[in-house]
């Protein structure tokens, strides 16, 4: 039953595409598109840790999120070029960092850092969750690089993906496009692992507060999409010969 | 059954105190303490809106969160004094703003802004939720000021409070103090209204991903604390003659 | 003979109150109120010196002054949050730092720093002098902490307090409240020690230049208030068992 | 005779590819690759001019240049995210802006601005000249958008492209890749128009000063490449139905 | 009786020179040297007031103080080029601004601003007082420009000059050079008018607090130098045909 | 044949004056004037290199360019005082740095830095080239200081000077004043050495693109002026006893 502008059913993902090796230099490199939303993700291995993390025998994973000035219908200034970094940007890149750190065993990563750069080229809703889903693939490529070069092995702890869901016109809908998101009563982002465990849940009632049952329904809907997301991640990695099982501890 | 350092049961709040009129100038003024955590909250009515909100017949509620340099055992620089505002600060003040906007009917507020300043004087965990719970009281004082001066009436949409919960040593516990929070596997913040509807849910697995059932348990625990929080807010307001029913639309 | 709005005589201080131990963490902690003006002062011992002071066998005392956004009738941005720190703030915190450094023997303090944070919660004139008077009490608490823990002894050089005076409607008046200060012809701040020696004198003719005799009168008036200020400081310290004589070299 | 690492003759361009419509929102959108160097260019029509240009009946063209953090073998901070924008970035985006302004009749453009965003995804030398060559195509797409919507006609003044050349091991070589550029004695950037006129010439002796004859040779070499660059621009535009002649005044 | 390194008596000024018209563009332009200290001062008439001063029928005088990177034996960064403006700079330029505002009748100046730029080319103590003394001459030139062009008349309220004095080795000395200043116990800056009235007094005990009598002696010494300073200002102005009496109200 | 406002022939320099030792502290100190344009240049020897240059056995030469707020008819903010450094400033100081690095053998300079500060006191066109021409003299003074103190010898590689030329009303003209520059079709800056080799050529068609022949003519014109510039540099240095031949390797 279709109730959505693009003909999708309420529990359907937008067309999802994950390309790898789209830049020359990064150890992990991904272009993920979810409907019109399209994000370039680069995972960089940095052998130097920030000062406050050194000497503890552990590594770190961090993220930067950047909106291309013309990812949206109207041009916006680049974050940081004129004055300070936008609060929304800060909030999103902290979420991406936390989500992807859940995928990694920091002790086994060793004293190095993996930086995940997420550049939104086209924005149509769901950029933070697509950045996490694509970011995991780039991260796995970087972990595979460490494995192949003998620098770190077994550092993968869990496969991680993310999706959003929301209540629109009283219906729970998965993977909101921008026009849906802008009229949603609740907006929920769920980060989860391959075995259905939760990494992060963030739900906001954009308008009036909502009953708890709605949150529960949206979490169900989001968790239901995880197998498809995980499968897409695995396919993208398999096509370049990377097997997640070889990356686990 | 007490399993906690301070002898509390797992579902007990820390001692909660809400004082009002603790500063001379703000329209709403509150000192909230939850155990050792203590936050000064000021609500200021600002008759000028930021440019992007003008001329739309609606108002706005926003928040600033500032950690006193010595709210913690070691002195920290003031945010913004040396370089940029910390990412954690940005994330927290955006949460407080969203939470308190849920309490207000922006059309009835009219073209003005209420700014909620939250200064953490002593930090011992739970500062963001205490800032929301105390912030609601300061906000209600500011709405009452608008009502008494005839500038805006009926702008209160919902009573809002917040609390945190987490899984510590395999047990779900309410209202974590810092030592508990630092070893929690999951940390959940819940913002809800007087009738049990949800405004925002933010849960993060700090370590390994966790089963969904843990999130459900923590939400239950948090919602169970709402009546006590709401009652404390009402008592603080009643003691200065403010009745929330008179502020509703 | 009373000529002032609040009924004070021209040479009378406003009601002065100094509370201690108002925050949990700082080694020195004070709330000072002078009439409506109210300032939270924290003294923090920092065992690391700034680079340009290291290795010289001496310590340092420095101050930060911050106006709460709603210390005044209209809300102001926090210094540093939007763009640069205000010039007035810079000027005041440099004065506080110089004044309190006069109280300390830097060699005996040793290679550590004491940072005095002054947060103005309610402003009604005289904030910089109240910050110095209260700051001395917080500083003495920090010195006593060093003495008790055996880290540094005998580092107190002098008891220091400060007050303002001004010419209002042709009369010399002590300890101006904001409404008096805003119409004063001359505004003088005096920092002095227990034995009547001067640490700093800053006098400005706000309007037309004034005869030197006026400056002399205002210095007399200010020095006349020192015994009362010093006594209030000693009482506050005595109530928590601190004797200045034990802190001297 | 090939004397170069990649087998090119000294006067040969690297493989050049210009794709259009690679982003959804910009009025002009181009991905240009020159060998490994690859740049995403977006041209955005902005109907509001900066204040200092308003009311003069003329338009403006400006550029922003941004290096992706991983366009190079080692990750670099994003410009502006930590502290100020890099001097090299400033210098390059000023060059791109000047070069592309030469292509436009500002009176006919009218009181609006076209912003050219150049994001370097892969860097291997020649990024500033590739940004100009690709930027012209994006600019023409934006001018065509203005023509089709009836907002501005005839605003194209000249077709503009750019290329670099340098003296490497005593030989003049066209279109240097990074490894060549890093050992070049002279590095020259030439911006020219379809009829061989010059827009900008920038030549720097990286090591010892060089005879004027070398500069002359490098300008010859660069001008010799212009027909091929212009032809590639025209083909890219023709493939989406844009004819430069229709854009001229 | 000479007790000083340069053979001066304790109450002698250093050689003072005031040149005018040393830059082409400013309405007032002065090079003042006092011994080795040398400051370029420019007074600029700005017909636009800052927003917070507009529409009140009054003008404003403000100052900027900038140390040349090599005014001192070791090169220092330019203020503001790397991070924020130095606190000392802020404090000094606020003093210069207050001092020179005392010279002007703001109502008669009208809704315009005079900006006094003070660039220290060679620093050897006393830069802030020399900037005020030289700044007055530049200011008078700007007021004369306004008078001659008919824009504002009678705006001069008082002739203003400044000098420093200090206690060195137990002796009160006038106009300290850097080597004297660095070992002074007290450092006093006095701003005064032609008839001996005081505009600002700033005295700091650099080391131990000092008896009030020392401050009195230093004020006497400073006031004793005013006739010579005023005379030098008048001579410099007379040499370009400016008579202060014509500028008064 | 005179075709210019000031009666100069098209190939004539403006009156050029180079004074030395105009500040007390810098190792190299120059005031250069070219017509009305007047620039204070200081060369400072800094024994500490920036981190990225340390340990390589080489030195560095860098430049800062600063426009005095009143170097132009209207007052401008100082760069960096309010927000970021202007793009034009960045571009110019990078050019000056590159130009003067061409004069120095970095190995022979050793691990130290020479900083060239260029303060434009009066601006009337040609400031960047005058800064280079004067900067060379200051640089040579600093190299002579190193030679005399035995710290570095033979570090001079080439004598360097710079001049601008442009096409005005269809005529090639040397050394443009501001009024000429503002109506020039092409503006060219040439940096060259004593033996006619080129260090940098920067030419921009300010309006319509121009034939290559014009660039060639302007380079000829600029190179023709080099002997006069070099001679003025040598005379200025000779008058303080510095012989360039003694500075060469």
Order of helices and strands of chain A: EEEEHHEHEEHEEHH
Report low-confidence residues of chain A grouped into runs of 5 or more. none
Radius of gyration of chain A: 18 Å
Total domain count of chain A: 1
CATH topology of chain A: Ribosomal Protein S5, domain 2
Mean pLDDT of chain A: 94
SS element count, helices of chain A? 6
- What is the CATH homologous superfamily assignment of chain A? GHMP Kinase, N-terminal domain
DSSP strand content of chain A = 25-35%
What about the largest sheet of chain A?
5 strands, mixed
Task: Please give a handful of descriptors for the protein shown.
249 residues; alpha+beta; homohexamer; four-stranded antiparallel sheet; globular
What does this structure look like?
Six copies of one chain form a homohexamer. In chain A, helix 1 packs across helix 3 and helix 3 runs parallel beside helix 5. The first copy, chain A, has a five-stranded mixed beta sheet with strand order 1-2-3-5-4. Chain A has a four-stranded antiparallel beta sheet with strand order 7-6-8-9, with helices on both faces. Chain A has six helices and nine strands. Chain A has one domain: GHMP Kinase, N-terminal domain (Ribosomal Protein S5, domain 2), CATH 3.30.230.70. The radius of gyration of chain A is 18 Å and the shape is globular. Chain A is an alpha+beta fold and 249 residues long. Helices cover 31% and strands 29% of the residues of chain A. The mean pLDDT of chain A is 94. Chains E and F meet through strand 3 and strand 5 of E and strand 3 and strand 5 of F.
